[in-house]
Design brief:
The complex is a heterodimer of chains A (516) and B (248). Chain A is built from 17 helices and 8 strands. Chain A is an alpha+beta fold. In chain A, strands 1-8-7-6-2-3-4-5 form an 8-stranded antiparallel sheet. In chain A, helix 13 packs antiparallel against helix 14. In chain B, 44% of the residues lie in helices and 13% in strands. Classes of the chains: A alpha+beta (516), B alpha/beta (248). At the A-B interface, loops of A face strand 3 of B.
């Protein structure tokens, strides 16, 4: 019968003296003491933490090992050469579980701990080891005084064929009342002690508006949140570590623009003029890099759309896209590190910092409560979307669907800005159903734009002698399949719109009646 | 999965030291490894500080109903387990002889172990007997330490002749001699070292020197690699032997 290793967490080291007590049959000898560093990794937006997973590395004397704590009872480990950056850098057999969690997000070091391990061997009279005990002390780097607050790990490792000392240790542990059931979440505890907050960033709008708040104050709160989101993603966007920094950076910019255009009259026009102009510039500046990112992110699906025999011919296109992305990003970085962006953020901050007295003529909605304005705006946007979508049929031009997409987007922004004013259980399903329509309309347009753009890329590659006829043919075939995809999305539109329009009564109940 | 038997008709040629050190290197290189001490003297067990005692003795070991699994002891080294010796092994031949298939039993009772371990090393007693025939059938290769002396060579010839005579009944057993306890200051050792290579193409190029360091295994009660310098001739010799064993 094989014996199982046992793991315990101790609040302090008082119990250790009893555990390490010698007896006639055996005694303990300290075999080693080692100190190494443990580094916890997660994505910028804490995807692993949210999924209750942890990935960390430990620098041992002979090698660096990478650990994946899948759940409190299962930790896997593997040798590691370099710190992992993407899910693809993790050991192959971990990827099926961790790739869907991390997706395209890169890993960054979140926390570093000093780990001190004392190994005790339990010896018999021949000096043969019959049991091993590992006592592990953790210390947050640089925070010496906090050591006492962290749990101490005790691991009991049995040696095959030596049951007696194992059973005795179990009895001692039971006597001391140590709990092996649920090891406490060490990372959570360390983060708290280090003053770090897991989930301190989310691309989602996490606002807590109160219905009585004036519209100008509520909009300030939203704009402050969005400015913060831009700031948080700025360094990652400039460094180009992964595509999601820029994605979230752009979303924050777009939301800010949408707020200014969708909630009119909250501020005087002269107050917001600079922001409108500069946010338009920011959107324009960041577009080429984001477009290139999207093509690269979709590349695998592009490849899969082609017959197997043609798939390899697409490789030069990937190389072209990679280079194109690098050029776009270099230009973007240059712009973002320039004076114009710094001035935009400074002016934005200045605006947030000081409230100026404005007349109600200049800002008619400023002092109206936000719930009234939100109801009015959402109901109007929903009505418009319903009305415009209802008349779209199979013969409507593509432009009609593109316009509908913009209307859907505006409604989505409004719902997200003001969702904290409503009952979560009522507003979430509305957003979910609207998203179904948005995805359909988004894909419909993206397929068309991408089909055209890929042809433009093909022409560019041909002019630069970077594509042979096989690659050009593969790109042509890809464009054709994308147009097929667009046709497919068109055929699904009616059903998606139906899902959204079925919520009409709910929209009316939630937003119209209260504004009446 | 490979089973290697450290075997020689002659005693005192370095079987146990080689079994212990090769098993250690196998485990060190990440292979799950078992060393079975079949010698009633229990020297391998002694080197690993494990009591050479099996509850129920040789009959327990040869039982087809009870697995060997429960008798295995973990060593002090990762990936390395030991099936200890027992003094009753001195009569293993008697017990084997009473069984239905006396020369195939070892292979049968070892079968479950081949699923758990990547490498199994058998430290065999010096003799040619029914137990030896069991070993020849169970092992993939006989690793035969040979001291470069006339008597030692004579026993190697005896072993070869025996295997030739038994022929197909022993299956695909490979005889892989290697020189052991080589004293390069001795002219005779040097001559035999050169001469024998042409006669035995399967002989290892690596050889184990005669070294006090290896003899100290009995005092240290550990594989030589555990206490000697990594660049010492003994450690280097076993490393080369291990590499050669692994490569063909």
């Amino acid at each position: 019968m094989k014996l199982a290793s046992l793991h315990y967490q101790l609040a302090d080291d008082k119990a250790l003296e009893i555990l390490l007590e010698n007896s006639d049959a055996f005694w303990f000898e300290q075999a080693s003491e080692s100190v190494h560093q443990r580094r916890y990794y997660d994505s910028f937006d804490w995807r692993l933490y949210q999924a209750k997973q942890a990935v960390y590395s430990e620098d041992k004397v002979a090698e660096t090992r990478l650990y994946w704590q899948q759940n409190p009872a299962a930790t896997h480990s593997a040798s590691s050469q370099i710190p992992p950056v993407f899910a693809e850098d993790l050991p192959h057999d971990w990827q099926s579980a961790l790739k869907p969690i991390l997706a395209m997000r890169s890993l960054e070091e979140k926390l570093s701990l000093d780990v001190r391990v004392l190994q005790y061997n339990c010896l018999n009279r021949y000096d043969k080891t019959m049991l091993r005990l590992y006592i592990t002390y953790y210390q947050i780097e640089g925070e010496i005084s906090l050591e006492d607050n962290l749990p101490i790990s005790l691991d009991i490792e049995p040696i095959r064929g030596y049951h007696k000392p194992y059973e005795l240790m179990q009895a001692r542990v039971e006597e001391l009342g140590l709990d092996t059931q649920k090891p406490k979440n060490l990372l959570k505890r360390c983060l708290k002690l280090a003053g770090l907050k897991a989930n301190d960033y989310s691309a989602k709008l996490r606002l807590d508006l109160t219905p009585e708040l004036n519209t100008d104050s509520a909009c300030r709160v939203i704009l402050g949140h969005l400015a913060n989101s831009l700031n948080r993603n700025y360094a990652g966007t400039c460094a180009g570590i992964d595509s999601e920094y820029l994605h979230d950076f752009r979303v924050a910019g777009r939301r800010s623009r949408a707020l200014l255009s969708q909630v009119k009259g909250a501020f005087a026009p002269e107050q917001m003029g600079f922001l409108k102009t500069e946010l338009a510039w920011l959107s324009q500046t960041t577009s080429p890099t984001r477009d290139a990112d999207v093509y690269l992110l979709k590349f695998e699906t592009y490849r899969e759309r082609l017959p197997e025999a043609m798939q390899a011919d697409l490789e030069p296109f990937k190389q072209f896209l990679t280079q194109h992305q690098q050029i776009c990003h270099a230009m973007l970085k240059n712009e973002l590190e320039g004076k114009r962006y710094q001035a935009l953020m400074q002016d934005w901050q200045d605006f947030l910092d000081k409230e100026t007295v404005i007349s109600s003529d200049d800002a008619p909605n400023a002092k109206i409560d936000i719930l009234t304005v939100a109801n009015r705006r959402i109901w109007k946007a929903a009505q418009r979307l319903l009305k415009t979508g209802k008349v779209i049929d199979d013969d409507s031009p593509a432009e009609a669907l593109h316009d509908l997409r913009k209307l859907a987007k505006k409604l989505r922004y409004l719902l997200e800005f003001f969702q904290s004013l409503y009952d979560k259980t009522e507003i979430k399903p509305l957003i979910k159903n609207l998203k179904i329509l948005q995805d359909n309309l988004g894909d419909f347009q993206d397929f068309e734009v991408q089909a055209e753009q890929i042809q433009a890329f093909a022409e560019q590659m041909q002019n630069q002698y970077r594509a042979n006829s096989a690659t050009l043919m593969a790109m042509g075939a890809l464009s054709a399949t994308l147009l097929d995809g667009q046709a497919q999305k068109r055929s699904e539109f009616a059903a998606c719109f139906q899902i959204f329009s079925a919520d009409k009564a709910l929209y009316k109940q939630l937003f119209k009646e209260e504004s009446a | 999965m490979s089973i290697y038997a450290l075997y020689s008709i002659k005693g005192g040629v370095g079987k146990t030291a080689s079994a212990v050190n090769l098993a250690y290197l196998s485990a060190l290189n990440g292979y799950s490894t078992l060393l079975w001490d079949l010698d009633p003297q229990g020297a391998s067990s002694y080197y690993f500080r494990v009591k050479p005692k099996i509850k129920g003795g040789r009959e327990r070991v040869l039982s087809k109903k009870k697995p060997l699994d429960d008798l295995i002891k973990g060593s002090d080294f990762p990936n390395l387990d030991l099936l200890p010796a027992d003094f009753s092994y001195r009569h293993l031949d008697v017990s084997l002889n009473e069984k239905r298939h006396p020369t195939r039993l070892l292979k049968k009772i070892m079968r479950p172990l081949t699923e758990e371990y990547e490498h199994i090393f058998l430290d065999c007693p010096p003799s040619i007997s029914i137990l030896s025939e069991n070993i020849f059938r169970a092992a993939d290769a006989l690793l035969v330490p040979v001291i470069p002396t006339t008597l030692s060579l004579r026993t190697l010839k005896q072993l070869n002749d025996f295997c030739d005579d038994e022929g197909e009944s022993l299956g695909q057993i490979r005889i892989r001699p290697f020189f052991s306890m080589v004293d390069q200051r001795r002219q005779l050792h040097k001559q035999i070292l050169l001469g024998l290579r042409s006669q035995y193409p399967d002989i290892f190029a690596a050889f184990v020197p005669y070294a006090a360091e290896i003899e100290r295994m009995g005092i240290q009660r550990a594989p030589v690699m555990d206490y000697a310098d990594a660049d010492s001739p003994s450690v280097q010799a076993y490393q080369r032997l291990w590499q050669e064993l692994l490569s063909n």
